[in-house]
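Lecture notes, continued. The same structure-token format from the folding unit now serves as the input rather than the output. Read the line below as a description of shape only.
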């Protein structure tokens, strides 16, 4: 099923456009592995898009090695390279196909640091995503391979069993700047970061700042040209070890209609 223009626009805004190098490794079968180095098109903590010259199928598992920004990681925050497994969810023609006929845009959903046990026995096994776990990674179930054995079409195809876009409305990684303000309204500390989730009345953002509950800050999104004053209700470390600020907006609500 093809996306509507509104769905496509919303998904694109949810992703950060980062042109980072990425190494893709794929086991077609036991003992047969190919590797390709390419660049990210966009990324979130839970998925990524990139161009690929090799042929691949919807539902395959691939290993990705990325110099991912620390605030987008769910583990291995001190490692130089972030290694994570992804499920191929869609394939569509890449804009560069006029120059590279076989180039495709690949979209993957991250499943975490490890593969299912069945993958070791059969790297060619196909999977589909059924639900996300507590960290936001996708749980999988096995699906039958196509009888023809032919690769998936280059038109966009989704195999997600649940509504990924609806899930992302609850977990929206927006690029923002947070600035701690004193009693005079001066900014005394700031950092660029990413939201973990956002609602009309508040948000959770990743942080390296030591901020106590009750502090005031300004949250600014250049993408949406909006600045909101918020109060810090809590600073907690997630299960991944990364600190989050839990914010309550106090001077206005976030216009969620901008994400539609």
């Amino acid at each position: 099923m093809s996306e509507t223009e509104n769905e496509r626009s919303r998904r694109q805004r949810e992703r950060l456009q980062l042109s980072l190098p990425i190494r893709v490794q794929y086991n077609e079968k036991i003992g047969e592995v190919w590797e390709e180095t390419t660049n990210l098109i966009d990324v979130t903590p839970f998925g990524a898009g990139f161009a690929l010259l090799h042929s691949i199928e919807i539902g395959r598992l691939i290993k990705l090695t990325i110099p991912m920004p620390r605030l987008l990681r769910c583990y291995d925050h001190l490692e130089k390279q972030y290694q994570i497994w992804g499920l191929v969810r869609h394939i569509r023609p890449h804009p560069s196909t006029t120059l590279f006929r076989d180039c495709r845009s690949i979209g993957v959903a991250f499943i975490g640091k490890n593969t299912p046990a069945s993958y070791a026995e059969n790297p060619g096994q196909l999977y589909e995503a059924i639900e996300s776990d507590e960290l936001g990674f996708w749980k999988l179930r096995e699906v039958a391979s196509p009888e023809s054995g032919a690769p998936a079409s280059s038109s966009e195809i989704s195999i997600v069993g649940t509504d990924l876009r609806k899930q992302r409305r609850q977990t929206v990684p927006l690029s923002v700047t947070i600035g701690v303000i004193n009693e005079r309204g001066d900014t005394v500390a700031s950092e660029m970061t990413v939201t973990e989730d956002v609602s009309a009345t508040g948000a959770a953002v990743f942080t390296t700042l030591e901020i106590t509950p009750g502090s005031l800050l300004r949250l600014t999104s250049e993408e949406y040209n909006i600045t909101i004053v918020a109060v810090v209700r809590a600073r907690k470390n997630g299960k991944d070890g990364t600190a989050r600020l839990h914010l309550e907006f106090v001077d206005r609500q976030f216009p969620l209609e901008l994400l539609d």
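Point for the exam: The CA atoms of residues 224 and 258 lie 8 Å apart.
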